[in-house]
Amino acid sequence: MGGFAHNQVLALADKVVDAVKSGAIKRFIVMAGCDGRQKSRNYFTEVAKALPKDAVILTAGCAKYRYNKLDLGNIGGIPRILDAGQCNDCYSLVVIALKLKEVFELDDINDLPISFDIGWYEQKAVAVLLALLFLGVKGIRLGPTLPAFISPNVLKVLVEKFNIKPTDTVEADVEAMMAGK
Ligand code: SF4
Question: Model-level pTM greater than 0.70?
């Protein structure tokens, strides 16, 4: 099921906020970005399967094709995969995050119960990543490979200032993300 752009999700905002407050939704995992033909991209399928039932995946772009046919069920009627659409719809995911920040009266977007586990591949994803960095999002996971053009110095800055990290094993990443790391 697709079509969960910000208008649709925000129409359910009260329901979503209640689910977070009651603990029915513990964490949102943004698994957006690109897909590719490498077998290693099954990482995203396995993460989707391994996430606990109180985690909701927010997605846009081709990465979703790794897991969007899985039957992950719903939480009180909210599908566990909220698919905003194609990669340009990452805008919707940002709007949803900013709205949640407002609703929960947080000063820092990093205090939201959201982790970013992004499938990396194409140049367009650079613009999406830069937008997230501009918003101050920290601790983004990128994988299963890092962009080839990232020089050691640029990587050092991204790690030091934004705590960007490469994806690890499925088990380690699921555990870390659910612990808010
Ligand atoms: S940039 Fe290309 S590969 Fe990546 S999500 Fe968009 S359409 Fe898919």
Answer: yes
CATH, residue 23: 3.40.50.2030
Residues enclosing ligand 1, CB less than 6 A? 34, 61-62, 87, 121-122, 124-125
DSSP type of residue 122: S
pLDDT band at 147 (very low <50, low <70, confident <90, very high): confident
Kindly report the CA angle at 175 between 172 and 181, in degrees rounded to 5?
95
Residue 53 lies inside a defined structural domain of this protein = yes
Domain housing 64: 6-178
* Tally of domains in the chain: 1
- Report yes or no: 106 and 81 within 8 Å, Cβ to Cβ: no
**Residue from 121, 123, 130 to probe ligand 1 pocket by mutation (most atoms less than 8 Å from CB):** 121
